[in-house]
């Protein structure tokens, strides 16, 4: 494939390596690979705002739309200091395979602003959010690109996005974003969807492996929305949560933690630090403590070639995007004792319920939470079964099976539609 210098960096290189491995399995000709891998569009914008002290600050914003072959693109928007075009492009690529695996009529997208939202006042956060959406208006729309929350953003930011877009359209357009508050067109069940989906598939894996949740332990790396919901749901199923962490501290206690109290503490203080400091452990050591279930629920590239041989879990449930590097995958492939639930399957609950929200907004007909969860689990079960059957039939890893399904669906759609001259 031709070299594309704009798309680079460790995260995009990781997405490219994963794609090349699956393309080899699927025997995709070299001349087809570039069109499947590289994004359709990438936007970089500057977002100037007036800070509270009267100074003008300029922030860089990004949006990458991977493909629009199956429908509009769909993906989150993250506010984080280390956001760059390569990371955003990789996340958009993964979202494409995730949506295709789930059978959703979307291509993948991702966006973000290089900023630490914790250093912004509420007013600054609002005007930066609105400015970003204003800059993106020519490139997004309910049938072009639908945004959602991600790291550093939340329901309130999505409401500001929706309001800004709506003001320019002269009417309320709730379907431009998902992950909104229920009061402004959001759906019941969206806030906890990713974490609930993670816990549901862990339950499926435990059933397949003959594990009793009441005798199982879990370590949750990352105690944000996804990690805390996963932990709380697993706890209610009887699993003992022996490790939790966030950016401020990692905690480990083989006797387990009261995760509901931990969640209440974080809701009040914003961080885990101070909850149980006597149980502090280094973040790197937390990942290699003995447990039945390890849930990386924070950022990319935490399971690496250095620690993949040291982890002591039976189930690795990838709640984060891209937590396991290709080097780690090669090691895990030699470890049949570890059951991997790959990220594009494991954390798909968020985009699935986002799809439900989009559909409900378009129809102006809303479902109750039981309907949302029932439909969510049906789609996740279908994906899990499909991945397991393909992995068994071809003798490949769960990750390669999941990626194979997603890539092949996008490839078939592109080949059927053809290449417009």
Q: What is the topology?
A:
Blueprint: H1 10-26, H2 30-37, E1 41-50, E2 56-65, E3 73-80, H3 85-102, E4 107-114, H4 122-136, E5 145-149, H5 155-169, H6 193-209, E6 217-221, H7 225-236, E7 240-245, E8 250-252, H8 259-269, E9 280-281, H9 283-286, E10 293-296, E11 315-317, H10 326-332, E12 339-341, H11 343-346, H12 349-363, H13 369-394, H14 398-417
Parallel strand pairs: 3-4, 3-5, 6-7, 6-10, 10-11, 11-12
Antiparallel strand pairs: 1-2, 2-4, 7-8, 8-9
Helix pairs in contact: 1-3, 1-14, 3-14, 4-5, 6-7, 6-12, 6-13, 12-13, 13-14
Provide the β-strand percentage band: 15-25%
Helix content: 40-55%
CATH class term of the largest domain: Alpha Beta
User: Topology as H/E string?
Assistant: HHEEEHEHEHHEHEEHEHEEHEHHHH
> Quaternary arrangement of the chains shown?
single chain
Residue runs with pLDDT of under 50 for 5 or more positions: none
Number of helices: 14
> What name goes with the CATH superfamily of the largest domain?
Leucine Dehydrogenase, chain A, domain 1
Rg over alpha carbons: 21 Å
Strand order of the largest sheet: 9-8-7-6-10-11-12
Structural class: alpha/beta
The major beta sheet can be summarized as: 7 strands, mixed
Q: Would you report the number of β strands? A: 12
What would you say the CATH architecture of the largest domain is? 3-Layer(aba) Sandwich
Concise overview:
The protein is α/β, with parallel strands linked by helices and 421 residues long. It is 45% helix and 16% strand. The strands form two sheets. It has a seven-stranded mixed beta sheet with strand order 9-8-7-6-10-11-12. Strands 1-2-4-3-5 form a five-stranded mixed beta sheet, sandwiched between helices.
């Amino acid at each position: 494939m031709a070299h594309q210098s704009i798309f680079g960096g460790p995260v995009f290189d990781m997405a490219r390596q994963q794609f090349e491995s699956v393309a080899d399995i699927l025997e995709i000709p070299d001349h087809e690979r570039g069109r499947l891998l590289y994004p359709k569009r990438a936007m970089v914008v500057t977002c100037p705002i007036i800070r509270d002290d009267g100074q003008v600050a300029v922030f860089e914003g990004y949006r990458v739309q991977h493909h629009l072959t199956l429908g509009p693109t769909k993906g989150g928007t993250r506010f984080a200091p280390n956001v760059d075009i390569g990371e955003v492009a990789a996340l958009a690529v993964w979202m494409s395979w995730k949506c295709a695996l789930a059978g959703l009529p979307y291509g993948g997208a991702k966006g973000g602003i290089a900023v630490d939202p914790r250093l912004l006042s509420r007013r600054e956060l609002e005007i930066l959010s609105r400015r970003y959406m204003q800059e993106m208006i020519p490139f997004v729309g309910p049938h072009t690109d639908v945004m959602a929350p991600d790291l550093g953003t939340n329901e309130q930011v999505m409401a500001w996005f929706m309001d800004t877009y709506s003001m320019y359209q002269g009417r309320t357009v709730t379907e431009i974003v998902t992950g909104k508050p229920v009061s402004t067109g959001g759906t019941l069940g969206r806030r906890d969807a990713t974490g609930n989906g993670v816990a549901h598939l862990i339950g499926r894996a435990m059933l397949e492996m003959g594990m009793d949740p009441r005798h199982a332990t879990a370590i949750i790396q990352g105690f944000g929305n996804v990690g805390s919901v996963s932990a709380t749901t697993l706890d209610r199923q009887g699993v003992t949560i022996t490790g939790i962490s966030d950016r401020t501290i990692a905690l480990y206690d083989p006797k387990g933690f009261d995760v509901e109290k931990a969640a209440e503490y974080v809701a009040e203080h914003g961080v885990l630090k101070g909850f149980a400091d006597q149980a502090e452990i280094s973040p790197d050591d937390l990942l290699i403590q003995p447990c039945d279930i390890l849930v990386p629920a924070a950022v990319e590239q935490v399971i690496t070639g250095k620690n993949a041989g040291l982890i002591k879990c039976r189930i690795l449930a990838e709640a984060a995007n891209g937590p396991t590097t290709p080097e780690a995958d090669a090691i895990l492939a030699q470890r049949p004792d570890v059951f991997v639930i790959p990220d594009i399957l494991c954390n798909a609950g968020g985009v699935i319920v986002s799809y439900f929200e989009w559909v409900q907004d378009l129809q102006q007909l809303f479902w109750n939470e039981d309907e949302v969860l029932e439909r969510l689990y049906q789609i996740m079960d279908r994906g899990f079964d499909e991945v397991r059957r393909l992995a068994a039939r071809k003798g490949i890893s769960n990750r390669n099976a999941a990626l194979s399904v997603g890539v092949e669906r996008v490839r078939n759609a592109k080949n059927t539609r053809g290449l417009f001259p």
